[in-house]
Amino acid sequence: MESGKHVIVRLGQELFGIPVLAVETILNDQKVTRVPRAPKLLLGVFELRGRTLSAIDLRTRLEQPPFEGDAKHVVVDTPVGSVSIRVDKVEGIWEFDDVEPSESLLSCHDQFLSGIGKRGGVLVTILDPQHLLSDQLKKKLAAQAA
Fold it and tell me: Residue 67 above 60 pLDDT?
């Protein structure tokens, strides 16, 4: 499993890691324009340096209650281009020497969970940005970009 540096994000009390090589930038909370009839996961879109980015809510993807307050956006590379992931907080960058693959621990979950990293007794669920979007949302975003 891929070890190395990960951007650590927080949702409530839970920590998640995103491989640093997949992260384009980290932004303060953004004013998002809603898209009519969009899937619940899609918060909407916003402009970043002349590009229109789709913003998804990681809490919704992970079936957690909504977050009230200022959040952060982590812009990641996905198969359909750059997408912003809204998270509660960014904790920093951590390095893991070893990440236990999800097949052994999380076999009943979606492919977007790629493993578990451990640092000083703290467990971090590692996300795979290549599989973070649902197939339905990937199709809609690809059609939107075309």
Answer: yes
Residue 73 confidence (pLDDT) above 80: yes
Element (H, E) at 136: helix 135-145
User: Could you tell me the sign of the dihedral formed by the alpha carbons of 10, 114, 85, 50, in that order?
Assistant: positive
Please give the DSSP secondary-structure letter assigned to residue 62.
T
pTM: 0.85
Within 10 A of 9 (CB to CB), how many other CB atoms are there? Answer: 26
Contact 142, 134 (CB under 8 A): no
Structure tokens at 66: 């909504």
Q: Where are the domains of the chain?
A: 4-145
Could you please state the CATH topology (level 3) that the domain comprising 4-145 is classified under: OB fold (Dihydrolipoamide Acetyltransferase, E2P) (2.40.50)
pLDDT (0 to 100) of residue 142:
64
